[in-house]
Amino acid sequence: MPDTPFAPVIRGDEPGSFPHSVLAERHPAIIRQVRDAFPFGPAQHAALDELLRNCTEGTVGPLPADAPDRDRWHAWGLPDHTGRSWYDVPWLWSESYFYRRLLDAVGYVGPGAWQGIDPFRPFKRAELDAPETDAELAALDGLRDLPEEERARALLHGSLWGNRADLGFRLSAADAGTRQPVPALVADDSETLWSLLPPAGTGTLVLVADNAGRELLPDLLLIAHLLTEGRAARAVLHVKPYPYYVSDATTADVVDALNRLRAAPGAAGGYGRVLRSAMADGRLTVRAHPFSCAPLPYADMPDDLRAEFAAATLTVVKGDLNYRRLVGDRFWPPTTPFRETTAYFPGPVAALRTLKSEVITGLSAATEAALVAAEGQRWRTSGTHALIQADPSGGARRG
Ligand SMILES: O=P(O)(O)OC[C@H]1O[C@](O)(CO)[C@@H](O)[C@@H]1O
């Protein structure tokens, strides 16, 4: 990570700013929605009341003494942040800890009858079961007769724009999933990406997933295509070990998505069968590494994860949150080269992301100027722009 004094870490301490609104408005809205979605008992309601008060007016507190991940959170900076306002610690840290505390409040962490009950499941299920999902899956039939390269491109774009269907994001932008027309990419390194996944490839693709539902389905379809067409011999899908940022995919969500595909008619069902058999023979594996829910940038990843990414032919990192973690959650000058911010990454890496937060790198000066002229700074957070960025160097520049 370059040592740049011009890229301050993002915090939520400026009233009126986007990060501040997430802490002050979005988090209370999420508590409300979760409370509405479940028939919770008095202890859960009281814990949600306390979390609401604490995360908006209070200071960061400790985890329960018996929390199974207490040591991990200590290593991730909890002692340094305890006693500080949620608005004053790094925004990424604050958001991540909010989701961890929400799981405590609803009893997910246990022990008890609510242990393991995903508080976001009703929202994720509704999206998977929506008629729009049927229509999207049916559209796959129209790809069948296209040349492989065109199918690959269509599926890559499906996975990219699937990131717009993020449920947390929709809490404050109801039409974000349907806005038309799809705007141009602000950066497009797809040629580099495809050069890393040539036909007859023998390598391993790692896909670091973002959201469940209508983002995970196209991610899985892309993986199925790459395996079937021999652009990757194996794929590893990284998901979250516990519910996070409302819609982030967990292993349970992968199971739901695979079942959804299996039950679909036409080409979608075929992809579903390909994926199940790839799971059965080990060509597709699912990983839920604890660091996937860490409140830290990937530059701080542990050695075992570093070794996994180093061994991959390509790691594809999906979504806004993963992008923030990949390049560092900082106010980079937008023309900062992407490859400068990913120089620490141990293998070739690509990002597929729609823009939903202020972090951005790798723009040309002309693109930045055109975006600002057209929209002021709205393009950074509106979810209407997207990027495909790739760094093929694989940490080769590290000394
Ligand atoms: O689902 P995605 O693409 O990671 O986007 C989630 C984004 O929404 C937010 O929660 C709020 O903008 C961001 O913190 C996060 O980057």
Automatic annotation (TrEMBL):
Reaction(s) catalysed (UniProt annotation): beta-D-fructose 1-phosphate + H2O = D-fructose + phosphate; beta-D-fructose 6-phosphate = dihydroxyacetone + D-glyceraldehyde 3-phosphate
Recorded superkingdom: Bacteria
GO MF: metal ion binding; methyltransferase activity; phosphatase activity
A Pfam family matched in the record: ARMT1-like_dom
Keywords per UniProt: Hydrolase, Manganese, Metal-binding, Methyltransferase, Transferase
Every Damage-control phosphatase ARMT1-like metal-binding domain range: 23-368
InterPro entries cross-referenced by the UniProt entry: ARMT-1-like_metal-bd_sf (IPR036075), ARMT1 (IPR039763), ARMT1-like_metal-bd (IPR002791)
Gene Ontology terms describing biological process: DNA damage response; methylation
UniProt cross-references to SUPFAM superfamilies, sorted A to Z: AF1104-like
Cofactor(s) recorded in Swiss-Prot or TrEMBL: Mn(2+)
Family note: Belongs to the damage-control phosphatase family. Sugar phosphate phosphatase III subfamily.
Name recorded for this polypeptide: Protein-glutamate O-methyltransferase family protein
UniProt lineage: Bacteria, Bacillati, Actinomycetota, Actinomycetes, Kitasatosporales
